[in-house]
């Protein structure tokens, strides 16, 4: 339910934008229709035109915030995955370097033979 929340927020932003645009158009049509049945029809026509122009524009602009937040979450999740993957890689390289250093130390103290050292190095290769 809460997996990939960034892409879900971006989809929600698109859906809400289209709903807002649709409702603005419907409201403008209702105002134009009301103008034909009213004595003060001119004011309904003006309000209908304003709703027809400003409503969709506001829906579109307001969707930027939600879409941008979803994009921010997507990018942050991507960065977090990258850092986590690099961290695992760095840990492996550090462990590898420490094992090689221990083998070198054992060889320098003549605690293992050259053949044992070479076999251990072969096992430890990245």
SSE inventory with pairings:
Elements (H helix, E strand, L loop, with lengths): L4 H33 L3 H68 L5 H11 L2
Helix content: over 70%
The helix-and-strand class reads mainly alpha
- Rounded Rg: 33 Å
End-to-end Cα distance, whole Å, is 39 Å
Low-confidence stretches: none
Order of helices and strands: HHH
Q: How much of the sequence is in beta strands? A: under 5%
The description of the largest β-sheet is:
none
Helix run count: 3
What coarse outline follows from CA principal-axis ratios?
A: rod-shaped
> Please, what is the average pLDDT?
86
Strand runs, count: 0
Number of domains: 1
In short:
By secondary structure, the chain is mostly helical.
Overview of this structure, please?
- With 126 residues, this protein is mainly alpha-helical.
- It contains 3 helices and no strands.
- It has one domain (5-124).
- Helices cover 89% and strands 0% of the residues.
- Helix 1 runs antiparallel to helix 2 and helix 2 runs antiparallel to helix 3 (114-124).
- The mean pLDDT is 86.
Characteristic terms for this protein:
126 residues; mainly alpha; 3 helices; 89% helix
């Amino acid at each position: 339910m809460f997996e990939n929340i960034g892409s879900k927020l971006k989809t929600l932003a698109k859906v809400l934008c289209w709903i807002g645009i649709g409702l603005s158009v419907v409201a403008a049509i209702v105002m134009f229709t009301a103008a034909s049945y009213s004595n003060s029809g001119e004011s309904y026509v003006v309000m209908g035109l304003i709703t027809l122009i400003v409503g969709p524009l506001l829906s579109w602009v307001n969707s930027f915030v939600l879409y941008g937040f979803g994009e921010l979450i997507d990018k942050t999740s991507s960065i977090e995955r990258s850092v986590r993957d690099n961290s695992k890689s760095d840990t492996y390289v550090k462990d590898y370097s420490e094992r090689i250093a221990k083998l070198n130390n054992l060889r320098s103290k003549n605690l293992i033979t050259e053949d044992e050292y070479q076999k251990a190095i072969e096992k430890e290769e990245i």
